[in-house]
């Protein structure tokens, strides 16, 4: 079993390029017993865009979540600590 968090938040900031972006990946259950990976991204402080991907099981959704997180980290995004973590 994969022990990934249900929610991953990444950001990318570059003041020289006036860049402040976020990328959020949430794994949530749907009403029919499946699981949805919700990807939300955009400029920090704005609503952004959203895409949803449906999966039959949680493990498949978590694998896809980890793959998206790796892709974004290769593009310069960094993990954001949850509130309260040092």
Automatic annotation (TrEMBL):
Record organism: Paracoccus lichenicola
CDD domains from the UniProt entry: WGR_MMR_like
SMART domains recorded: WGR
Listed Pfam families: WGR (PF05406)
Gene3D superfamilies: WGR domain (2.20.140.10)
Lineage: Bacteria, Pseudomonadati, Pseudomonadota, Alphaproteobacteria, Rhodobacterales
Protein name: WGR domain-containing protein
Occurrences of domain WGR (ranges): 1-86
């Amino acid at each position: 079993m994969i022990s990934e968090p249900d929610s991953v938040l990444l950001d990318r900031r570059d003041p020289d390029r006036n860049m402040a972006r976020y990328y959020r990946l949430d794994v949530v259950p749907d009403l029919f017993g499946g699981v949805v990976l919700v990807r939300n991204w955009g400029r920090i402080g704005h609503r952004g865009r959203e895409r949803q991907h449906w999966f039959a099981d949680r493990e498949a959704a978590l694998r896809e979540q980890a793959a998206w997180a790796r892709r974004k980290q290769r593009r310069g995004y960094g993990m954001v600590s949850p509130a309260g973590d040092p």
